[in-house]
Amino acid sequence: MHPVSTTTIDPDVQHLVQRAVDIVAIPKATVENSFTLHAPLELLARIGLLSHVAPARHDDAVAVIAEFAERYAAAGDPVGTLRLTSPAHVDHSPEQEASRLLAAVRAGELDEVDALAVALLPTVSPAEAVGLLGEGLVTSLAAAGHAPIGFALLGRVRPVQSVALLRGPLRSLARRPEWQIDWHRDARAAGDPDALYDALRATPRLGRPGSDFIFPLMSQVQDAGVAREVLAPVLADRFDVAAAQRTLTRVAAWSMLHDDPEQAPYGWTHALTMPQAVMSLAGAGVTPRTALAVAGTFMVGFRAAHGTVDLPETIEPGRAPDATWTDVATAAALHEDAHLVKFTLACRHAADDDAQYEPLYLGAAAFLVDWWRNAG
User: In degrees rounded to 5, what are phi and psi of residue 53?
Assistant: First the structure.
């Protein structure tokens, strides 16, 4: 189990944060743009960062959350006016409701997905939501492949009732149910997960397929057979999940620090947040084999498209930068970019899970803070 961030906030701040959750939990009626798609995840990450912000800037970080919620409220008409702050009536068991919801996602029935989400989500805990829905949704490349980040953050950031924030990502998944990572479904030979790092080092450089969006990046390595070639030999039903996750997060942090800096704000942030989220669900609702296949595909996809520097024979922890976690968390919490917010919290979580390599993760977070500072 990963440690849970139980941010302590006073009642007035908790009321403000809960109000932000209630606003952002309601999807927009129009097709998502980058802001509305990331909003539930960004809000969770901003809440998670509060406990790491410098005390003198805490009120400012809370004000950013309030302003963020108002910006979301003004970003378009909501799908409906239901508020998910109290349990809704469920006619069937949670398992039955979840099965119906997954079927509606596969069928692309947006309104049915939303109605079932409204009925189910207020009745389950974050862990229960992962257990009921994780395996059926983690392979989707719809919603920019970001739904696992929402599930993962719900399990680690719990200062308020926030399971309702999955409502928007679930609706987004139904827009493109055919967008799937599925190469692994018939790759049944038992592999060697301990060879994961060597497999990632062998990822070929394909360059960007004319787009930096997630679906074409991952389709490039899936359709060309690259994901299968690189990852099938390391798939297994049982393995050290924590070790595999550490391998992936170390590669992502190293890439932020040493590979193409032009990919810092989006490419290398996603290379950490997406695989990390998927692996955190392994064994908690997602089978380890599926998690490794999906998380590995994400990493192979980003390294194949954006990588310009070979991974070293061994990744070292490195030396801590001059910046502290308080410095980087405060900078991220006060910044407008969703990817900086999510990446900084992901680095903090990676350091919690992989303490020996904390300097690597702090350095990666500080690098991205500096990148944005230099970008003006």
Answer: -75, 145
Is the pTM higher than 0.85? The answer reads yes
Question: Are 343 and 272 a contacting pair, CB within 8 Å?
Answer: yes
HEC sequence for the chain: CCCCECCCCCHHHHHHHHHHHHHHCCCECCCCCHHHHHHHHHHHHHHHHHHHCCHHHHHHHHHHHHHHHHHHHCCCCECCCCCCCCCCCCCCCHHHHHHHHHHHHHHCCHHHHHHHHHHHHHHCCHHHHHHHHHHHHCCECHHHHCHHHHHHHHHHECCCCCHHHHHHHHHHHCCCCCCECCHHHHCCCCCCHHHHHHHHHCCCCCCCCCCCCHHHHHHHHHHCCHHHHHHHHHCCCCCCHHHHHHHHHHHHHHHHHHCCHHHCCCHHHHHHHHHHHHHHCECCCECHHHHHHHHHHHHHHHHHHHCCCCCCCCCCCCCCCCCCHHHHHHHHHCCCCHHHHHHHHHHHHHHHHCHHHHHHHHHHHHHHHHHHHHHC
Average of per-residue pLDDT across 177-187: 95
212-261 pLDDT, tens digit each: 999 999 999 999 999 999 999 999 999 999 999 999 999 999 999 999 99
The chain-wide mean pLDDT, for the chain, equals 93
Other C-beta atoms closer than 10 Å to the C-beta of 327 total 17
Cα gap 206→223, rounded to integer Å: 12
Q: Are 200 and 230 in contact (CB under 8 A)?
A: yes
Give the separation between CA 299 and CA 181, rounded to whole angstroms: 13
Taking phi first (over 0 means left), then psi (-120 to 50 degrees means alpha), and beta for anything else, what does residue 25 get?
alpha
314 vs 318: CA distance, rounded Å:
11
- Cα 102 from Cα 83, distance rounded (Å): 22
